[in-house]
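pinned: reference chain
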Amino acid sequence: MTTAANPVFVIQHTSGEYLGQIEDHLEGRGVRFTYFRPFTAGGGLPATMEFAAGLILLGGGPWGTTGGRAVPTLTEELALARQALALGKPVIGFGLGAQILCLAAGGGSERADLVFELGEARRVADGALAGFLPVRFPIAVFMRDRPVPPADAEVLAVDAAGRPALFRCAGNCFGFTFHPGFKAGMAEDLIMEFDELPDEFTAALVDLRGTQRAIEDALIPIMTGLIQETGWMRAVTGG
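pinned: its C-alpha coordinates
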Protein backbone atom coordinates (compact mmCIF):
# COMPACT_ATOMS: atom_id res chain seq x y z
CA MET A 1 0.00 0.00 0.00
CA THR A 2 1.32 3.48 -0.92
CA THR A 3 -0.25 6.77 0.13
CA ALA A 4 0.83 10.38 0.10
CA ALA A 5 2.03 9.92 3.67
CA ASN A 6 4.44 7.11 2.79
CA PRO A 7 8.10 8.20 2.76
CA VAL A 8 10.87 6.93 0.57
CA PHE A 9 13.27 4.89 2.70
CA VAL A 10 16.92 5.94 2.27
CA ILE A 11 19.67 3.56 3.42
CA GLN A 12 22.85 5.41 4.34
CA HIS A 13 26.09 3.42 4.62
CA THR A 14 28.51 6.10 5.80
CA SER A 15 28.33 9.40 7.64
CA GLY A 16 29.92 11.19 4.69
CA GLU A 17 27.61 10.14 1.88
CA TYR A 18 23.96 11.14 1.99
CA LEU A 19 21.42 12.36 -0.59
CA GLY A 20 23.26 15.65 -0.98
CA GLN A 21 21.66 17.95 -3.55
CA ILE A 22 18.93 15.38 -4.17
CA GLU A 23 17.30 16.35 -0.86
CA ASP A 24 16.26 19.73 -2.28
CA HIS A 25 14.68 18.11 -5.34
CA LEU A 26 12.62 15.69 -3.25
CA GLU A 27 11.57 18.31 -0.72
CA GLY A 28 10.66 20.78 -3.48
CA ARG A 29 8.21 18.21 -4.90
CA GLY A 30 6.78 17.25 -1.52
CA VAL A 31 8.33 13.76 -1.60
CA ARG A 32 9.01 12.66 1.97
CA PHE A 33 12.06 10.57 2.81
CA THR A 34 13.43 8.90 5.92
CA TYR A 35 17.07 7.99 6.52
CA PHE A 36 18.13 4.68 8.05
CA ARG A 37 21.71 4.53 9.35
CA PRO A 38 22.56 0.94 10.40
CA PHE A 39 26.24 1.82 10.95
CA THR A 40 25.42 4.10 13.91
CA ALA A 41 24.89 3.10 17.52
CA GLY A 42 21.23 2.19 17.85
CA GLY A 43 20.69 2.49 14.10
CA GLY A 44 18.99 -0.18 12.05
CA LEU A 45 17.19 -1.04 8.85
CA PRO A 46 13.45 -0.94 8.05
CA ALA A 47 11.49 -3.94 9.26
CA THR A 48 9.43 -4.00 6.06
CA MET A 49 9.05 -2.18 2.75
CA GLU A 50 5.28 -2.58 2.77
CA PHE A 51 4.48 0.99 3.80
CA ALA A 52 7.32 2.77 1.94
CA ALA A 53 6.97 4.67 -1.33
CA GLY A 54 10.30 3.22 -2.48
CA LEU A 55 13.90 2.56 -1.53
CA ILE A 56 17.08 4.53 -2.18
CA LEU A 57 20.35 2.71 -1.53
CA LEU A 58 23.22 5.17 -1.23
CA GLY A 59 26.89 4.66 -1.96
CA GLY A 60 29.27 3.26 0.60
CA GLY A 61 32.66 4.90 0.15
CA PRO A 62 35.18 2.05 0.54
CA TRP A 63 32.44 -0.55 1.15
CA GLY A 64 31.67 -2.95 -1.68
CA THR A 65 29.73 -6.15 -2.26
CA THR A 66 32.42 -8.70 -3.07
CA GLY A 67 34.85 -10.38 -0.71
CA GLY A 68 37.24 -7.43 -0.76
CA ARG A 69 35.38 -5.25 1.75
CA ALA A 70 31.70 -6.12 1.73
CA VAL A 71 29.31 -3.77 3.52
CA PRO A 72 28.33 -5.43 6.84
CA THR A 73 24.57 -5.18 6.22
CA LEU A 74 24.67 -6.66 2.70
CA THR A 75 22.50 -9.70 3.48
CA GLU A 76 19.80 -7.65 5.19
CA GLU A 77 19.77 -5.00 2.46
CA LEU A 78 19.47 -7.61 -0.26
CA ALA A 79 16.38 -8.95 1.53
CA LEU A 80 14.90 -5.43 1.70
CA ALA A 81 15.60 -4.75 -1.97
CA ARG A 82 14.08 -8.08 -2.99
CA GLN A 83 10.99 -7.33 -0.93
CA ALA A 84 10.68 -3.92 -2.59
CA LEU A 85 11.00 -5.52 -6.01
CA ALA A 86 8.36 -8.11 -5.16
CA LEU A 87 6.00 -5.34 -4.06
CA GLY A 88 6.65 -3.31 -7.20
CA LYS A 89 8.29 -0.47 -5.26
CA PRO A 90 10.91 1.68 -7.02
CA VAL A 91 14.49 0.93 -5.95
CA ILE A 92 17.20 3.49 -6.76
CA GLY A 93 20.85 2.64 -6.19
CA PHE A 94 23.94 4.84 -6.29
CA GLY A 95 27.38 3.22 -6.43
CA LEU A 96 27.29 0.50 -3.78
CA GLY A 97 23.50 0.78 -3.88
CA ALA A 98 23.50 -0.01 -7.61
CA GLN A 99 25.47 -3.18 -6.85
CA ILE A 100 22.90 -4.23 -4.24
CA LEU A 101 20.08 -3.54 -6.72
CA CYS A 102 21.82 -5.72 -9.33
CA LEU A 103 22.31 -8.59 -6.90
CA ALA A 104 18.68 -8.38 -5.77
CA ALA A 105 17.33 -8.22 -9.33
CA GLY A 106 19.24 -11.20 -10.71
CA GLY A 107 22.45 -9.52 -11.81
CA GLY A 108 25.70 -9.41 -9.88
CA SER A 109 28.77 -7.41 -8.97
CA GLU A 110 32.44 -7.73 -9.79
CA ARG A 111 35.49 -6.96 -7.73
CA ALA A 112 37.27 -3.70 -8.49
CA ASP A 113 39.60 -1.38 -6.61
CA LEU A 114 38.29 1.69 -4.83
CA VAL A 115 38.17 4.61 -7.26
CA PHE A 116 37.34 8.29 -7.09
CA GLU A 117 37.14 9.75 -10.55
CA LEU A 118 35.36 12.36 -12.60
CA GLY A 119 34.15 11.64 -16.08
CA GLU A 120 31.34 12.06 -18.57
CA ALA A 121 28.40 9.78 -19.30
CA ARG A 122 26.65 9.50 -22.66
CA ARG A 123 22.98 8.66 -23.14
CA VAL A 124 22.46 5.54 -25.26
CA ALA A 125 18.68 5.06 -24.95
CA ASP A 126 16.23 7.45 -26.56
CA GLY A 127 13.58 8.67 -24.16
CA ALA A 128 15.61 7.70 -21.06
CA LEU A 129 14.20 9.02 -17.78
CA ALA A 130 10.95 10.07 -19.46
CA GLY A 131 13.00 11.93 -22.07
CA PHE A 132 14.80 14.14 -19.54
CA LEU A 133 18.20 12.42 -19.36
CA PRO A 134 20.80 14.75 -20.94
CA VAL A 135 22.70 13.52 -23.99
CA ARG A 136 25.98 14.02 -22.10
CA PHE A 137 26.52 14.84 -18.43
CA PRO A 138 29.34 14.80 -15.84
CA ILE A 139 29.59 11.97 -13.32
CA ALA A 140 31.51 11.59 -10.06
CA VAL A 141 32.27 7.97 -9.11
CA PHE A 142 33.46 7.07 -5.59
CA MET A 143 33.07 3.31 -5.41
CA ARG A 144 34.64 -0.07 -4.68
CA ASP A 145 33.57 -2.97 -6.94
CA ARG A 146 31.18 -2.54 -9.87
CA PRO A 147 27.55 -3.46 -10.55
CA VAL A 148 26.71 -6.05 -13.21
CA PRO A 149 23.14 -5.33 -14.40
CA PRO A 150 20.74 -8.25 -14.91
CA ALA A 151 20.45 -9.64 -18.43
CA ASP A 152 17.06 -7.98 -18.94
CA ALA A 153 18.19 -4.55 -17.74
CA GLU A 154 18.17 -1.59 -20.13
CA VAL A 155 21.37 0.46 -20.19
CA LEU A 156 20.43 4.14 -20.41
CA ALA A 157 23.90 5.74 -20.32
CA VAL A 158 27.52 4.60 -20.52
CA ASP A 159 30.77 6.07 -19.24
CA ALA A 160 33.85 6.93 -21.29
CA ALA A 161 34.95 3.28 -21.18
CA GLY A 162 31.60 2.10 -22.55
CA ARG A 163 30.51 0.57 -19.24
CA PRO A 164 26.97 1.04 -17.88
CA ALA A 165 26.71 4.31 -15.96
CA LEU A 166 22.91 4.28 -15.60
CA PHE A 167 20.58 1.33 -16.12
CA ARG A 168 16.94 0.45 -15.62
CA CYS A 169 15.53 -2.86 -14.43
CA ALA A 170 12.24 -4.26 -13.11
CA GLY A 171 10.36 -1.42 -14.78
CA ASN A 172 10.76 1.33 -12.19
CA CYS A 173 14.19 0.64 -10.66
CA PHE A 174 17.38 2.51 -11.60
CA GLY A 175 21.05 1.92 -10.87
CA PHE A 176 23.66 4.69 -11.09
CA THR A 177 27.37 3.89 -10.87
CA PHE A 178 27.72 7.49 -9.72
CA HIS A 179 25.94 9.72 -7.21
CA PRO A 180 24.11 12.38 -9.25
CA GLY A 181 23.99 14.73 -6.27
CA PHE A 182 27.59 14.22 -5.11
CA LYS A 183 29.42 17.16 -3.52
CA ALA A 184 33.09 17.84 -2.83
CA GLY A 185 32.41 17.88 0.90
CA MET A 186 31.21 14.28 0.72
CA ALA A 187 34.53 13.10 -0.73
CA GLU A 188 36.44 14.96 1.97
CA ASP A 189 34.24 13.50 4.71
CA LEU A 190 34.60 9.96 3.34
CA ILE A 191 38.39 10.21 3.48
CA MET A 192 38.29 11.45 7.08
CA GLU A 193 35.77 8.77 8.04
CA PHE A 194 37.66 5.82 6.60
CA ASP A 195 41.26 7.04 6.20
CA GLU A 196 41.49 5.16 2.90
CA LEU A 197 42.75 7.25 0.01
CA PRO A 198 41.82 6.22 -3.54
CA ASP A 199 44.40 6.68 -6.27
CA GLU A 200 44.60 10.21 -7.67
CA PHE A 201 42.33 11.51 -4.92
CA THR A 202 43.70 15.06 -4.89
CA ALA A 203 43.40 15.50 -8.65
CA ALA A 204 39.87 14.08 -8.63
CA LEU A 205 38.82 16.43 -5.83
CA VAL A 206 40.10 19.43 -7.81
CA ASP A 207 38.19 18.17 -10.86
CA LEU A 208 35.04 17.72 -8.78
CA ARG A 209 35.19 21.27 -7.47
CA GLY A 210 35.56 22.55 -11.00
CA THR A 211 32.67 20.40 -12.23
CA GLN A 212 30.31 20.98 -9.30
CA ARG A 213 28.11 23.51 -11.10
CA ALA A 214 27.76 21.25 -14.15
CA ILE A 215 26.76 18.34 -11.88
CA GLU A 216 24.14 20.54 -10.22
CA ASP A 217 22.78 21.59 -13.62
CA ALA A 218 22.57 17.99 -14.86
CA LEU A 219 20.78 16.92 -11.67
CA ILE A 220 17.76 19.09 -12.53
CA PRO A 221 16.61 17.08 -15.58
CA ILE A 222 17.81 13.79 -14.05
CA MET A 223 15.61 14.28 -10.98
CA THR A 224 12.70 15.54 -13.08
CA GLY A 225 12.77 12.31 -15.09
CA LEU A 226 13.46 10.06 -12.11
CA ILE A 227 10.53 11.45 -10.14
CA GLN A 228 8.24 10.87 -13.11
CA GLU A 229 9.48 7.31 -13.68
CA THR A 230 9.10 6.31 -10.03
CA GLY A 231 5.63 7.81 -9.71
CA TRP A 232 6.54 9.52 -6.46
CA MET A 233 4.82 12.75 -7.50
CA ARG A 234 1.60 10.81 -8.20
CA ALA A 235 1.81 9.29 -4.73
CA VAL A 236 2.09 12.77 -3.24
CA THR A 237 -0.71 14.34 -5.27
CA GLY A 238 -2.91 11.28 -5.33
CA GLY A 239 -3.06 11.39 -9.12
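why pinned: The domain at 8-237 is CATH 3.40.50.880 (Rossmann fold). The CA atoms of residues 6 and 77 lie 20 Å apart.
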